[in-house]
Amino acid sequence: MPLSWPHHTDEIFGGDMTAALAYATPARGTVVMAVAPVGLRDRERGAVGFTTSLGFAKKLDRIRREPRVALAYHAREHGRSERSEYVLVQGRAEPVTGPTAEDRALVRRHAEDFLGAGRSGAFWDRWLREYYMVRIPVWVHVERLTVWPDLRCAGQPELYGLPEPVSPPDPQPPPGKGTGPRVGMKRAAKRLANTPHVLLGHAGADGYPTIGPVELHGSDASGLELTAARGVIPPGARRAGLLGHAYRPKLIGLTARQYTGWLEAGDDRALYAPHSETGFVAPPNETLLLFFNGLQAKQGVRRARREGKLPT
Q1: What is the CATH number of the domain that holds 30?
Q2: CB-CB contact of 233 with 54 (8 Å)
Q3: Is residue 1 part of a domain?
Q4: How far apart are CA 297 and CA 276, in angstroms?
Q5: What is the pTM of this model?
Q6: Within a domain: residue 165?
Q7: In what order do the strands lie in the sheet with 215-220?
Q8: Which domain holds residue 256?
Q9: Is residue 289 part of a domain?
Q10: 217-233 pLDDT tens trace
């Protein structure tokens, strides 16, 4: 039977402008990235959704291999709800890799409702063709829903669906190349300090990723010092993902900083050593943003076709 959720949670699903997605890496780590849920949810099926591009073949391949994911509804700015809860969805993802005309129409309708009408005309129709053609929904069939009373994940949560694991995840063996930072710490700390939302993701004891809000408390050559509400940071050492991001109304103007790395934690404090870094800054200008969206989609489609992930 599909998992249902209360009306106050549905308001958040239907109103948040952004969410954080966590999915597994082959080395049992976690990638955390910002996605656009654009109000996608189906209570009868017990599923919530977000949009992505078929051009992001690596992400989709990893989700297909390990469909257990997490979605964190962690921010209310520029959305349609003023509720205070932090909502964590854990479930199995179903990317719609063969979208029908109805699927594309659903994504475009929801996207335009949240983000505004798309551009049209001789240039924009051609330039944004790949952007709209390869934009797909990814449905997450909810298996566990955890709702904290505030956005810091403090207080006693409400739990729906699968029970929580009775113990924290076991520590992981260190990576062969060492656990220390592999990116510039001053630059990473400065970039994260400029993002109002910082989220930590890791694999839970039952294999489902989890995501929680953290704060950057300090940094030095050994890593980033993170703090959080009790229970957000798991004790021990493990691979983990970190996301810092900021966004403006209608997602016109975005900053995202994604890291994978090594976490060593205890007593709700942690030292995080980044091993890889990706990110972008999108301009707060709608015309430039659409131009770069179209360019990114074209590049992603070409790359996916070269790799045989999309038909030519």
Answers
A1: 2.30.110.10
A2: no
A3: no
A4: 23
A5: 0.94
A6: no
A7: 209-213, 197-203, 236-247, 254-266, 269-282, 223-227, 215-220
A8: 7-160+174-306
A9: yes
A10: 999 999 999 999 999 99
